[in-house]
Amino acid sequence: MSIQAAYDNWSTTYDADENLTRDLDRIVTKETFMGLRCKSVVEIGCGTGKNTLLLSQIAQKVYAVDFSASMIEKAKEKVNSANVTFITADITNQWFCNNESADSIVCNLVLEHIEDLSFIFSEAYRVLVKGGYFFICELHPFRQYGGTQANFQRNQEVIQIPAFIHHLSDFFQAAKNHGFLLEDFNEWWHEQDQNKPPRLVSFLFKK
Ligand SMILES: C[S@@+](CC[C@H](N)C(=O)[O-])C[C@H]1O[C@@H](n2cnc3c(N)ncnc32)[C@H](O)[C@@H]1O
């Protein structure tokens, strides 16, 4: 099953399924952005809008992008804010945004599905204003090394969504190659993760 078809399918239960990674990511995003204010945010891979609602409260304008029309439909059910525009697009193609038009780009649990990190960093750099931030929160590669990847259950079958392993150094190299500076880096555990490798990794890069 393609990544897009898998998310179209998962959209019906994504919010209700038990998913500690999704839940931890929500906490991380809240901790990171609470109290901040931005003019224009581009959220790539917004999914069902779990983080879009929070972003709509801290930004004057949010562009929330995803290539799964069904995930976006779910997001629209929960986010009904005049300052949010949903866009159905594939982020592996040139982004719709003008050069230097956003002051933040936010990306949660998406890059495991993207083979070429370099393209994403080059588009993020193009679209951000000078001094703008690129926030990334992803499944930690240590978990990927153990065989974990995005998956969901349908009719007693586990559907594994195609995923690529990006080592920590891949993120740092891609960022450096495109001129970003590292502002912050964190590893995160869910409260049920005692004695396990970190579940999530987050990066805050600055243009
Ligand atoms: C695990 S979900 C995360 C959704 C949301 N960011 C969250 O944290 O709940 C991954 C999302 O990335 C989207 N996605 C994956 N590859 C994409 C691509 N090439 N272009 C646009 N969206 C993509 C999927 O459709 C899906 O909605």
TrEMBL record:
Q: Which CDD domains match?
A: AdoMet_MTases
Protein name in UniProt: Class I SAM-dependent methyltransferase
Biological process terms in GO annotation: methylation
Q: Give start and end of each Methyltransferase type domain.
A: 42-136
Which keywords label this protein? Methyltransferase, Transferase
Does the keyword field hold Ubl conjugation? Answer: no
- Gene Ontology terms, MF aspect: methyltransferase activity
Q: Which PANTHER family match?
A: TRANS-ACONITATE 2-METHYLTRANSFERASE-RELATED (PTHR43861)
Q: Which domain of life does the protein's organism represent?
A: Bacteria
